[in-house]
Amino acid sequence: MRVVIGFHAVEEALKGECSGAELHLHKKSHKRNEQLEKLALSLNVTVRSSSEKDLDSLSEGRSHRGAVLIISGGKTKTKNTSFAGFLTSSKHAEKSVVVVLDGVTDPQNLGAVMRSADQFSIDLLLLPERRSAQVNSTVYKVSSGAAEYVPYAIVPNLVRALDQLKEQGYWIYGADMNGEAISSVNMTGKTVVVLGAEGKGLSRLVLETCDRVISIPTSGHIDSLNISVAAGIMMYEIQRQQK
Q1: Per-residue pLDDT averaged across 161-183, rounded?
Q2: For residue 203, is pLDDT > 80?
């Protein structure tokens, strides 16, 4: 069962193939939820009137603003895919871009990264199986529904996965404060950018696997950018260069 909250996340999930889904709405909820009700009914999704207490229970106490979508079966447009399948697919055009998160455990950050990944048409988001946030209802909400569209894969060993990408002709760029300025690095062609958790950065073995280390020049008073902000800037620069 998957629980989806947040107006945009629910809207995008409804647009998928949500057979077996139920939309729970509060009678006195936000006016925007009337749009969700109309959309759900047009797609033959069951709509139920629920109390605030019931919605709190369904959303496990998270802020739902009067709307909770429960997907208990059938197909959805989730883009969870296998890394092996990606490696053997036709995704490897000369402008293919993969984003890798190393040890990012905050689902809020993962959701924000997925939102940027959707906007910049990233071909794959790669996550480690352990010591990482996974795609859940919080990620769906924070991504404003982008989690329905961003292809992502989960792997047991990031270093091995990076080596496999190298074998496919990808160049691996690790993000670190001490790296070369991203604007001075040629990032065209098959590109992988690896970002680590705030405060910890990239793990030693992952950093050693990277071909080059890049950074975003800044002039502020604090020592680093939020991981999702840094990811968005790097995705934009890669897209700019690829075009």
Answers
A1: 92
A2: yes
Where does 88-170 show beta strands of DSSP type E?
97-102, 124-128, 152-155
**CATH classification number, 83-242, choose in 3.40.630.30, 3.40.1280.10, 1.10.340.30, 3.90.226.10:** 3.40.1280.10
Is the pTM for the entire model greater than 0.85? no
Q: Looking at residue 49, what is its pLDDT? A: 84
Nearest to 106 by CA among 226, 240, 191: 226
pLDDT recorded at residue 56: 74
> What contacts 101, CB < 8 A, 6 or more positions away?
110, 113, 125, 126, 127, 128, 132, 194, 195, 196, 227
CB 201 within 8 A of CB 208: no
Contact yes or no for 184/146 (Cβ under 8 A): no
Q: Which residues of 199-227 are buried (b: 16+ CB within 10 A; e: fewer)?
A: eebbbeebbebbeebbbbeeeeeeeebeb
Take residue 158 and report the two structure tokens written for it. Answer: 């990031």
Distance spanning both ends of the chain, measured CA to CA: 40
pLDDT of residue 192: 96
d(CA 191, CA 92): 10
Above 50 in pLDDT, residue 75?
no
